Input
Amino acid sequence: MTEWDIKKLRILRTLADRGTVTATAEALHMTPSAVSQQLTNLARQLGVPLLEAQGRRVRLTDAAHLVLRHAEAVFAQLERADAELAGYLAGEAGEVRIGAFSTAVPVLVVPAVAALRHSHPGVEVRVRETEAAQVYELLAAGAVDLALSLAAHAPTARDPRFTRITLMEDPLDVALPPGHPLAAAPALRLADLSGDPWIYGGSGPWQEIARNACEAAGFVPEQAHSASGWTAILAMVEAGMGVALVPRMVSSRASGVAVRVLAHDRPTRHVLAATRSGGEAAPAVSRVLAALREVAARRTP
Output
């Protein structure tokens, strides 16, 4: 029977994720030579070539991809086994490491942690604020147990490494300068703001969300300014430099600007939680997920 070495399989999966031996070694706190040696030993154990030279780099062979497809099922089952053992040994105690994007921390994570302190004080939560696009790297590497992200940043639902849980819809509102002529209008459409200067991110999904929403309303927005943080965007709106689409998670806490709910053409983003496949069954992780769902349900419009 073929010998399957879990430790070496994890090294192979990390190489598939990171792309180079050097990056794999950094992620696993190993030396590049140790990574190469472990993968050579794994290839010998399995009896198939796993790597082939591609210039100064290496790439995974078809056999390596076949091995990884089966290994993902093994890893998921091991996560479930770890979860059951954790529940048996620790009951409802345990540590859960959460990686979350910035706006989710005060709106979802902090209230959930506060609730857990009263209901399940044995569950310790450690929070790590991170970019939504990077949190899945941390989850795959085992640096966090639970990831909060936007659907726009999440891997496909068919990715076998992760279990995705939809937490909430987050509608987008319009932020206007306090003295804007439409700040007190009885009803507001995006098209009413087609002649205004707009403020939104310079690149990436947020730029696409803003542009697509405006284009669906029948106009191409004039981007007057760009910023990556909501504090900067709202400060520019307050100063009368333009208008902006702002997630409800942000607009509900905004001050100094006129926030208007769109009656029509209202775009929405989706907030997800994710675990490594099988990890959602861990008692402590399950408790944290339940607390996050309760907070999200109270915020759902």
Observations:
- Residues 44 and 206 are 47 Å apart (CA to CA).
